[in-house]
Amino acid sequence: MSRTKVDPPSGHSSEIDRLRRTVWLQNDLLQALAAEDPVKALVNRLATLARGAAVLYQSSGRVIASTGQGPLRLIWEEITARELAPQRFAVGRWAVATRPFLLRGSGFRLAVASRGHALLDDLGPELLQTAEHVLAAANAVRALTMSQERAEAGRLVWTLYAGTPASRVRQTWDRLRRFRFRVGGGLRVVAASPVDPEADHRRTADLLLEEAHTRQLGLIVSEEHDPDDLETPLTAVLADDPAAADWLELLGGTHLVGVSGPFADLTTGPSYFREAITAWRVATRRHDRGSGERVVRLDEVDFATWLLTRRDDAQVAARFERHFGALVKAADLTETVIRYLACDQDVKRTAELMFVHPNTVRYRLHKVEQLLGAPIASPRLIANLYLAFQDDVLALS
Question: Across residues 307-326, what is the average pLDDT?
């Protein structure tokens, strides 16, 4: 249904006319809130009212939304050259009005440009001030919607963690569809903890959710956990989709991440939550030993790693002490063994990396043979050493 264009009431000095014009502007701009993309719709309306161009900049200069043929780059250069306050200036034949404001702690600059200087003199200040209020309202609506979605996503994560009875599988898929999941499609569980505990985790979570939304990636996240059950502050379920790889890489920039294998049967969900926690423990152990690898997918680890994830750490520690206690007390021998394994048992490469002579490496390996009672070339000894020091070896590989 087409909408008849109405010019704004002409300006008068009386307060009543000014009030009428403000109400008219608010009513016109508030209609943008009903659009699928309120910000873009608002910028379009601003350009129409100014009979020119409109643009919303982030404080970095990135254009969030724009419309019209105005000189956007030159406008931004003028904005940055002036103090942080509402401004009026000219760029060529364009009259420009700008206004800075904050939303959720982030800075923005809103600008309208018109070839009609008188129109902008008359309408500009009210237009930008009203637009700022509408953007704040749009942001509040979006924040409320995101808050509600986050709460439902958290509940849904815990539903899958607790186990979905066969009688509720269909209903659970219906709930997942709201978060861009395809019914019957593959899922993966993610468990993660921040590398920097002091970082702004809320801002990171916002970025992760925005990235998933941009890529149309199915994702639900819970940032709350029961320390008696889950050990990680961030638990998520995401679609097993090609876009998931980039999302996991983004998460790995700030977190240690464990990822389960794929599954589609919701009744088996709990076992995949355990897989994700296991993979996260592997990522944590490797990180503690200096590895740069932050994302571990349990279905992609080698057999030795998978085997080690099933160990009882208390029993392993006792057994490790019995077999390798004497070795670890000799730091130079332990370092040599780990380097030797990381270099695929190449003495020359090991010596180069340790800045020693190859004969020094051979001498140390001979000492290891004496301590452990077996030749270093023995497949059995190599296998045992690799399993015992696997995380340290992989950190160097």
Answer: 72
